[in-house]
Design goal:
Strand order of the largest sheet of chain A: 4-3-2-1-5-8-10-11-12-13
Number of domains of chain B: 1
Number of domains of chain A: 1
Largest interface: A-B, 41 and 52 residues
Radius of gyration of chain A: 17 Å
Oligomer: heterotetramer
Number of strands of chain A: 13
Shape of chain B: globular
CATH class of chain A: Alpha Beta
Number of strands of chain B: 13
Distance between the termini of chain B: 26 Å
Number of helices of chain A: 6
Order of helices and strands of chain A: HEHEEEHEEEHEEEEEHEH
Number of helices of chain B: 6
Order of helices and strands of chain B: HEHEHEHEHEEEEEHEEEE
Distance between the termini of chain A: 26 Å
CATH architecture of chain A: 3-Layer(aba) Sandwich
């Protein structure tokens, strides 16, 4: 389980361009920090810090936290700012990539990651702003929900977070890229098979020529 | 020769009255005016509308005021971590206005800046756009968010001079400087008070014209929780 | 001439409440600074400084100027901020008083102070924001224009700066206060007479009971 | 290990092309990127739309670009002090968009913050409200101002580290931090370059993600005018 999550995080790290500004959501996205080089990427946390690093237990400052309210460290060249300034950065298109989790992703590229009808989750935080403002969205998630149901569905049944399309989806089974009208399956993760992906995905997607040519179908 | 804004917490709290709209700084407990909130729990005040990212935690910070029945309405972005919020909401004891975090902080800034509101793309097409006006600007759809204002703001800063100039500490800054601009009366809880002239004019984050009262922290957030530092 | 301007400035200073935050416009308003106590009032200049003082020639820093681009000093407890933050203060109602000049003032309490039709003045600066945002407006001006024509007119013929009423008008002849529907003449300046005021004012105004009782009419 | 953003002025200027919209910091010559402007006068660029509080002075700063016929349109708040502006405007050689100074700086901030626009009371009922949409909000009339953006911003700061974090000096701050957020490419002219880590994280006014290039000042504003400080 932990291994699957680490695998997803590691694959997400490979998507990042050097020198980009990256915001990491809670959950699997947070793990991405373990696979990137501090000097090459700058991490942003929407509560007001550009230049997030990990912190050792002994160096924890309770007044330096990330958006998950967890203790973090301060990189060389870091800066702090107000909430309004932080979201101005996000909405203004100054964050290159946001790596986020998702409850559902649908055939139209839309993400649901803030609310489950009937469950007492009354909170949205920065999710809608990040989906709106980040130049590129990478979704990292288990391919299916805890109850085994597909997360990649034809149409989100949970409330969507934005009408904006998420460009890249990385799960424990596969990698999908948005191709203008639909997702394309571009890569199988680990030793997963096309059959596994098909059995666990109700969203519409195409399969890349490369995968087809490799005879994986 | 200047107006000394240093007050006892009890004296400053006289400005908060029942049915007031109150802005409360902080992201969770980080940068939250913990001492002022603690004093508020001892006062007979009700019907508050609270504008704050969270409503503290269950039974902690603003969470105590909620359990005391003092909060009528909460405007914020993330109430999930305090399970009481959903409970009170489901029982019809609490009104909720949920805003995306960036829309919340921008609405506070907007209120403080004398603007009627602003157009954001955030939340367009989602459930949180319900009841909001939309508008096409340069071919894109935006929704209108009006500015937010409060009767009183209680905020947390790191250092103040006696005029009321403020500087903040790391991620304890968060909503505090924005809220300092958007209330009729602003009470700043600070850890340290310095002489006028000690803060570099280029580094003051909140100029003193925004601040009405400074009070000294009695509780601070340490690595192992909230601790009393005495008076 | 200088004397008249100083008299107006001195009278304007008397209007200020202790500990208020004051923005001074260009011209006569700038002179008000000579009549107030630095410790009791805090001067704001909209280009981004709260805590303006006068500066001696030898201490001039070319990068500390007021809205008239003239060198000023920095008071103890001063702070600097961006233009957007400065006007947020103004529009947000955080400036108690703006003392401004005027080309015309009309019976409806409206001020014209930014443009003269047919003249090459293409600039508004912060005038409209100050008239909109300051809690109280004090206009300081010569009673008549350089060509002898009244400045207090029935309706502004120059473009107005705001629909907002200016509460107090101080000229070299008289002081007027807005009374909800119209200006009231509340004071004669120096040795000026009601007749002088009447001869040089085409705006509608009433005369205070006090002045009537003093038999000045 | 980091991206060094220090460029020669000539290299940084390659980003500015004919028909670009250019934001230029400064209040008059104070806080204006004088060295970058001086280099621009030597380039064959035309059709610029300039967003700046002023268009320099007659024959000084941006005023030279105007005389060279490089500026097609000026968006700002106060053009009176450069008499050429009225002359070029009257001769039909220059378009002008005049905004109240607070509306100008807020529009720049708004553009940088990804907002479609905002509602302000400033200018309602005046000639500068012509053509602007108005709206009643809570019983008061506001007008809509859309956000402003630029292809390139040239700004002036005091110190930068090599990552591009900036701090400003006194009233030379003015429009610069707002413009730093609102352009696709941002060139900051600075007087001093310090090591990464030397600027206090709580005091950085412009975080480095906004800045694309740093260049070193060659001209600075002294008490007795603009002086060359060599390279």
């Amino acid at each position: 389980m932990g291994n699957k999550r680490e695998l997803i995080a590691k694959r997400a790290a490979d998507e990042l361009e050097p020198y980009s500004f990256v915001n990491l959501g809670i959950g699997i996205p947070t793990l991405v920090a373990n696979y990137i080089d501090d000097g090459l990427y700058t991490l942003h946390t929407e509560n007001g810090l550009l230049g997030v690093t990990s912190v050792e237990e002994k160096d924890i400052d309770p007044l330096i936290v990330n958006a998950g309210k967890l203790p973090v460290g301060e990189a060389l060249g870091a800066s702090y700012f107000s909430s309004a300034d932080s979201f101005a950065m996000i909405r203004g298109g100054h964050i290159d990539v946001a790596i986020l989790g998702a409850l559902q992703i649908d055939s139209r590229g839309r993400i649901a990651n803030w609310a489950i009808p009937g469950k007492d989750i009354i909170g949205v935080g920065g999710a809608m702003d990040l989906l709106e403002g980040a130049k590129k969205i990478i979704i990292t998630t288990n391919h299916v929900a805890n109850d085994g149901r597909p997360k990649l569905v034809d149409e989100c049944t949970f409330p969507i977070t934005s009408e904006r399309v998420a460009e890249t989806i990385i799960t424990d089974l596969a990698v999908f890229k948005w191709q203008g009208d639909n997702y394309e399956l571009v890569e199988l993760m680990g030793d997963s098979t096309i059959e596994e992906v098909q059995a666990n995905t109700t969203a519409f997607y195409t399969i890349s020529n490369e995968l087809l040519q490799e005879g994986k179908v | 020769m200047y107006l000394d804004k240093l007050f006892s917490i009890e004296d400053a709290l006289k400005e908060i009255k029942s049915n007031h709209t109150l802005m409360v700084g902080g992201f969770g407990l980080v940068g939250s005016p913990l001492s002022i909130i603690e004093h508020l729990t001892r006062h007979d005040i009700s019907g508050l509308t609270v504008i704050s990212n969270n409503v503290g935690e269950a039974g902690e910070g603003l969470g105590i005021l909620l359990r005391q029945g003092k909060i009528k309405k909460a405007i914020g972005s993330y109430f999930t971590s305090n399970r009481d919020v959903a409970k009170y909401y489901n029982e019809g004891k609490l009104e909720i206005e949920l805003l995306p975090q960036g829309t919340l902080s921008e609405a506070i800034r907007s209120g403080g800046a004398g603007l009627g509101g602003f157009y954001t793309k955030t939340a367009v097409g989602t459930d949180l756009a319900r009841g909001k006006e939309t508008k096409e600007i340069n071919g894109e759809t935006y929704l209108l968010q009006e500015g937010l204002k409060a009767d009183v703001a209680i905020i947390k800063a790191w250092k103040a001079d006696r005029l009321g100039n403020l500087v903040y500490y790391k991620t304890a800054r968060n909503f505090n400087p924005n809220m300092a601009t958007a209330a009729n009366y602003v009470i700043a809880e600070v850890d340290e008070i310095v002489d006028v002239g000690e803060l570099d004019p280029d580094e003051i984050a909140t100029p003193h014209l925004f601040v009405d009262a400074i009070v000294k922290s009695e509780l601070i957030l340490m690595k192992d929780g909230v601790k009393s530092i005495g008076k």
